[in-house]
Amino acid sequence: MYEDWKENILPLVYLAPQSLNPSSFSVKEYFAARSLIASRSFQIDEYHGFGMVPLADLFNHKTGAEDVHFTSVSPNQEYEDDVDSENGDNNELSKISSHDKRDSTCENSYIHSDSESDYSSVTGEDPMMLQMIMVREVKSGDEVFNTYGSLGNAALLHRYGFTEANNPFDIVNIDLELVLKWGCSLFSSRYCRARLSLWRRINISGSVSENSEYFEVSSDGEPELELLTLLYIMLLPDDTCHKLDISICTADKVSANIGMILAEKHDITWSTSSEISKDLLLTEKVCRALLALADIRESCYGSKSIDEDVEALERCCMTERKLYHSLMLRISERRILEKFRTYATAGAQSQTFQDANGTSTKKRLKKH
């Protein structure tokens, strides 16, 4: 934000020192304005884009249980779409435009009009006006909630300064650096770089944010396929890894490289239209790697146990907002890590059972 201010705002003050009061355009003032926009603006619909809307920014967020939608639907818009949104998926405001079921002529004019006057002439509406639509019944005196989207506690705390208990969209991020740290504890750094390069050559990568690559673990403790694939490649025997390296140049599909290896190992039928099953990647070694990653990720919270965090939260008052919401985030993430360990342990036990019984059942990989 400071770099943005220095690059875009400061030159304007220097260019017009007489007409602009420098104190009104200081870095402190810029931070305040940026903070308001970052925390209160939202995507209204496809036509209006992002905006700061009077009244709309007064509503607090509730995950998956909002009472209102703000949109520019026509007065004759049927109400069924919003009723459906209550009973089905509660999508974020950025998807509200999907409820806007105009006839095809009007919709095309709405999306492709060159100016606000064009839009107004087609719909007979003021394009600067929005409607607040109730999507569920609210009793008199109750707080009315909006939604900021399907966000986990980390995103809510980062963007808006609060968290929610039992948030179904919570996730835990495991940075690629932590995976490489685990790898280098078992193998040389040269070995890890080579296996990472091989993983990238089959067009797989983690999520990227602010120059940091990471993998998500969902609220139920299940890791992304990309992480499992990386661990699987890291732990492949050298001869199998060499075979995979050669097959990359000839495979018709990215997943075919790993798929062919899995097909041979598990004696399963493989087709190029198949997608990789996570269960097949959960070898005993991969499961042990997941448990090690859980421990490494857990160490980021320091020496205090999750029980100590829970006790601290119970003692904490809501007036201590920063401490309260920080503890909420720590606890929610550590509970996901507990489920992550359960996922890995169950996978290891399943592999041990299969190995003990010597079973090799013919089965097809999961179809698209």
Automatic annotation (TrEMBL):
Protein name: SET domain-containing protein
Biased composition (Polar residues): 106-122
Gene Ontology biological-process annotations: methylation
Gene Ontology MF: a single term: protein-lysine N-methyltransferase activity
Gene Ontology annotations for the cellular component aspect, listed alphabetically: nucleus
Region Disordered, residue ranges: 77-122
Positions with biased composition (Acidic residues): 78-89
Lineage: Eukaryota, Viridiplantae, Streptophyta, Embryophyta, Tracheophyta
Annotated ranges, domain SET: 11-149
Keyword Methyltransferase: yes
Keywords: Methyltransferase, S-adenosyl-L-methionine, Transferase
InterPro entries: Rubisco_LSMT_subst-bd, Rubisco_LSMT_subst-bd_sf, SET_dom, SET_dom_sf, SETD3_SETD6_MTase
